[in-house]
Amino acid sequence: MKHILITGLTGTSGSAFYDVLCREHCLDRLRVIVRKTTDLSIFQEDSSFHPNVELVTGDISDKGFLKQALQGCDTVFHIASKRMIQPLADAITEVDSVKDVIMVSSTIIYSKYYRTSYLGEDEALCIEKFKRRGVKYLFLRPTMIFGLPNDGNISRFIRWFLKYPVFPIVGKGQATIQPVSRHDLAEAYWLVLKNFSHIKKTEYIVSGERPMTLLEMFEIVCRNSGKKVCFINVPFPIAKLCVEILYILTRTQIDYREKLDRLMEDRAYPHNEISMDLGYAPRSFEERVSPLIQELKGRT
Fold first, then answer.
1. Is 16 helix (H, G, I), strand (E, B) or coil?
2. Which three-class secondary structure state does DSSP give residue 108?
3. How far apart are CA 162 and CA 70, in angstroms?
4. Residue 169 · residue 133 · CB < 8 Å
5. Distances in Å between the alpha carbon of 14 and those of 62, 147, 157, 163, 214?
6. Tens-digit pLDDT profile for residues 38-56
């Protein structure tokens, strides 16, 4: 088995991936980067697996630390912050043992409203360095990830629907979306890791089972939570004016302009390639969101 370095294994999708690795008994040669403040409880839930995981504590923005952590590893699986793609690539290209790299990125680079250009630029630089060093690489691009009470995405809407009977929706909620469950994403990670030597492509989109409109997604959540919510349409020009005023009044400190633009943009992306190549088969949104709703209901 390869010696694998993983970042972000305690995060939203990473922790689900750890469960898959436990299930597949693939922890014998696993090195995991953690921070000093990282909650390590997921490694302690099953004592039969925990001793096999090598934990290294440090900051992945520290190139010296990264180079030391990478020594002896031939595969890198980066799940942590997208902003760390570039420093990690810099370190990888200076460590001879690393041959294979899997980077978890985002579908946000496809957005025409994406103002923050660092991600696309960083990826281009990474690819150039990997090619020059002969490193095999793959970028995974998940859509909106959900599945934990603190995921910062769908959990926010669920909390609102559980508390309030009215919800403002821009543009009648007709933009499409295709959120992916952390558990389905973790299965995709495993398929990629297991089959990496045979993969010819350099990127895969990883999305949920099917596209839906925002309004449809909200209605599914409400139906499964047993709540009746009245959706009030806010015309886009009015919403746009409000966020511009907020941006000015807060002296650029609160900026929802890009987020608002993206609410009107279709963000459903097909997972055809990874499904055809590796057999990726996500479950339905209804099935995946129901446990999250019940968990949040138990906290209210």
1. helix
2. helix
3. 45
4. no
5. 21, 12, 23, 30, 26
6. 887 777 655 444 567 889 9
